[in-house]
Amino acid sequence: MIHSIVGAITGENDKKKIKGTVVLMKKNVLDFNDFNASVLDRVHELLGQGVSLQLVSAVHGDPANGLQGKLGKPAYLEDWITTITSLTAGESAFKVTFDWDEEIGEPGAFIIRNNHHSEFYLRTLTLEDVPGCGRIHFVCNSWVYPAKHYKTDRVFFTNQTYLPSETPGPLRKYRKGELVNLRGDGTGELKEWDRVYDYAYYNDLGNPDRDLKYARPVLGGSAEYPYPRRGRTGRPPSEKDPNTESRLPLVMSLNIYVPRDERFGHLKIFQDVLDLYEGGIKVPEGPLLDKIKDNIPLEMLKELVRTDGEHLFKFPMPQVIKEDKSAWRTDEEFAREMLAGLNPVVIRLLQEFPPKSKLDPEVYGNQNSSITKEHIENHLDDLTDKRDHHDVFMPYLRRINTTSTKTYASRTLLFLKDDGTLKPLAIELSLPHPNGDKFGAVNKVYTPAEDGVEGSIWQLAKAYAAVNDSGYHQLLSHWLNTHAAIEPFVIATNRQLSVLHPIHKLLHPHFRDTMNINALARQILINAGGVVESTVFPSKYAMEMSSVVYKDWVLTGASTSC
Question: Would you indicate the residue range of the signal peptide (predicted)?
Fold first, then answer.
């Protein structure tokens, strides 16, 4: 408002103008915990502390500024005070008027300074009737915090792609400077407004300050425990172990650092999750809920904590048991779920019989399968497949079985029937030799049976095989090969490839929310004593075991099995 009045007095309004439209989402649209944000932003606007934008030339460098693109005069978002924003998710459009300078030529970027109290989510800037260019569109999709939080100005580029060598000269320093900012300097604890993509080991899973039983080895950076890198947070070390990063309190889990643009952008994600259920959970009021409300954005809490009398986690009846409550026990259903369930990627064609182990016989003795042709010959009529969890679990089985969880290493043979369905041929369950690993494995082979004791034992064998399959899926197929292995690529892409790079634009949609999900997983799922250790059979050795498996991870092999 003040800027418009000054322009009228000085005659600036008589010069040629370029009209633009900025689309953004104000903070109070997305964060119900700060109702004062909108009011304070309006106060700043009244004091002349608005949101300014400057166009950056893509064709003319400024000799006084190291030949970086020449800057236009600042222009300010108009009518911020009078633009009413609803308290439900939505966008606001603001007009902006630039004084046109012929020396700017074609704009290739713009600089934005947020002088308000609160951050906002910047969607786009569209310029109309730019001389010689027509309409120019900038796709931003980024949080812009108050300028006081940044060491350098925020810059956004036009919606075009350039290889580094093809980037217009006046934009090259802006391109390079943006990457330098995103890399950070490797020091200090990162705050929510920081835009730093840096690497760290998985040294934040343990919590020795809580109790030494929650201490966990550092994953990554060693030959013993190799692991993909995670995003750095810079939190100080724990008091009892300088190699372990301190942890956030549980109720602060959503505040774990990831670059703000990596956080969930829309609450529809939570609605998609809730659509799996038939209702909501009734949550009792109390101090704990109040504490959660103080640290979790209210609109997120609103999605997760229903107040309409419905019950969360009331699942619909699975179709498998709608008609027959015992249908899950059949061999046909067991094999169907192997293929149509969570973890079909580990099924392999049986090319060698009996199956042989790849474990070092000098360390683990004879780990080859004890399944013989007598076990399966009466059932063979087509191709045979295997699901082999033996070599993955056997090295850790002795340790796993010292916990409250008990299990076996397993091999499951399946065969493809003439009608195109699978059925189990045999399940081999193995334990470490009581006299030591070098004596090999103690194997027991189970074959299909329907009645009596043998039928019950067969059901138990299938249960152990299914438990192994579930654990393999959660720890390796899903977490390690899908989440953990991808995070370094997310970090590297943002550190090394400018948003102008065509490869960056191709990769970015596939990386959405990965860092945020992984950070939350480190806080409440895969941490010491977390959900995974409490529910998946390797227990406290779960993540350590996934590190040992990662020793054999190869990009070309993993890319064909995920």
Answer: none
Closest CA to 257 of 268, 267, 245, 266: 245
Torsion of Cα atoms, 524 then 527 then 533 then 539, to 10°:
180
Q: What's CA 193's distance to the chain center, in Å?
A: 19
Residue extents of the structural domains in the chain: 2-183, 323-484+525-558
- C-alpha dihedral (257, 258, 264, 270), degrees to nearest 10: -50
CATH architecture, domain 2-183 = Sandwich (2.60)
Q: Which helix (H) or strand (E) holds 157?
A: strand 154-157
A 10 A CB-CB count for 431 gives: 17
| Residue 420 token pair | 């195109």
Nearest to 258 by CA among 31, 494, 507, 509: 494
Residues 187 and 425: their CA atoms lie apart, in Å, by: 57
- Report mean pLDDT in 10-residue bins for the chain, 562 residues: 52 73 74 50 50 92 85 87 54 89 88 90 92 90 92 93 93 94 94 94 94 93 94 95 92 88 61 45 54 52 46 65 80 84 77 77 76 66 63 85 88 83 88 87 88 91 89 89 93 95 94 91 91 88 91 73 48
CA 464 – CA 450 distance, rounded (Å): 17
What is the distance between the alpha carbons of residues 59 and 47, in angstroms, rounded to a whole number?
A: 35
Q: Which two tokens stand for residue 95?
A: 């007009």
Q: Which two tokens stand for residue 289?
A: 């809920």
CB-CB contact of 381 with 325 (8 Å): no
Rounded Cα gap, residues 171 and 177, in angstroms: 10
323-484+525-558: same fold as 2-183?
no
CB 367 within 8 A of CB 442: no
Strands (E), 192-304: 199-200, 230-231
- Residue-level pLDDT at 376: 66
pLDDT at 290: 60
CATH class of the structural domain 323-484+525-558: alpha beta
Q: Burial level of 488, CB count in 10 A (0-12/13-18/19+)? A: middle
Question: What span, in angstroms and rounded, lies between the C-alpha atoms of 168 and 160?
Answer: 11
Are 395 and 364 in contact by the 8 Å Cβ rule? The answer is: yes
Calpha distance 559→554 (Å, rounded): 8
Structure tokens at 29: 């649209």
